[in-house]
Predict the structure.
Amino acid sequence: MTTRILTGITTTGTPHLGNYAGAIRPAIVASRDPQADSFYFLADYHALIKCDDPTRIQRSRLEIAATWLACGLDADKATFYRQSDIPEIPELTWLLTCVSAKGLLNRAHAYKASVDKNVEAGEDPDAGVTMGLYSYPVLMAADILMFNAHKVPVGRDQIQHVEMARDIGQRFNHLFGNGKELFTLPEVVIEEDVATLPGLDGRKMSKSYDNTIPLFGSAKQLKDAVARIVTDSRAPGEPKDPDNSHLFTLYQAFSTHEQQAAFRAELLGGLAWGEAKQRLFELLDNELGEARERYHALITRPADLEDILLAGAAKARRIATPFLGELREAVGLRSFREQVQVASEGKKKAAKAARFVSFREDDGFRFRLLDAAGEQLLLSIAFADGKAAGQVTKRLQSEALDLHAELNAFSVRLDGEAVAYSPEFSTDAERDAAMHRLREALAPQE
Ligand code: TRP
């Protein structure tokens, strides 16, 4: 069984070393695991909450996309997309908003911090607080639940948000799942080894502290940043304390145990800070040099990046579109045009009768196949007209079924083209069982 790993990166700012060590690098390593089904995306709707400068938003999306690819993300294996290319996400956000307790969101750290600051300053508690900031965790829950992620690797500051996604998903399951887990409840993953990198001044490396080391600046910029790392005033020859040096912490994040032991010994032996900085610079330059070249090549070809991201969005929507259809159905947003057409006419077979239900949506005509208990077996692609959809339902009942397993779902093909998709399953066994049930339901009547 594969594990679906999902994480988003907010597209404000330019990626720095802290983002690389804390999020990008571990995520890319994880995506190479054959058991991993990774969903990585640019959280550009989240970016709008914090930033009202369109130029910066656009620049940052481009830089972050180029960064992930330059660092080695394989966009064919992973699903790599922009949140804003998936219209199902804001739609799901609303469905989730309607089941999210206001009290839950009142407790969100980011919102509470803003309120505390206002109160301290003697302002209205909600001064400057937008609904975007307030609802931030619901949008994030939609990101996660849309794709039924099992694991969500994030920084510590995001743990609460993943917990909220679980709460909200659980509530939705309870209200609308009819005993079925509509949403997988995600688990948060924190990389214990890397935790958070210290910045130049020893506080957490963060754009808001202006203490970052750029990831893909020139070698000179890298060197200059390293030179600005704050150290204590011990002179060359005096023993340094590696455990109280954030320069050493930075070194640790990019080195092997042997390298760390050697560097530690040198510091204890009185290595000058200037030398120590040179060691760190060489380590980083070695780690990042090749990726930096790939990054600069990518950033000059934005049209190629656009194509890669649009392909990623199409891949993601092959899951999101039918799943949102199921969720709309679950909450009672159903078409008035649904016509019930019993698949197997034979009265004797009525017990296992499956039904095709056709309906019209903005993008065309679709049908679902429901089993006798009303559970969805298939959702079709959109057809230009009702007649085309009808022909497909006829053929599915009379021809040998051509089923293809895809990720955690399966498709039904006619003439080699997928015409309908199953819902998502959490295990391969469940998926295979559903394929079997489908064959039974559509077995030609004698
Ligand atoms: N809020 C996250 C951050 O700022 C980014 C994010 C948005 C995210 N949606 C997500 C992370 C979904 C994990 C899963 O870091």
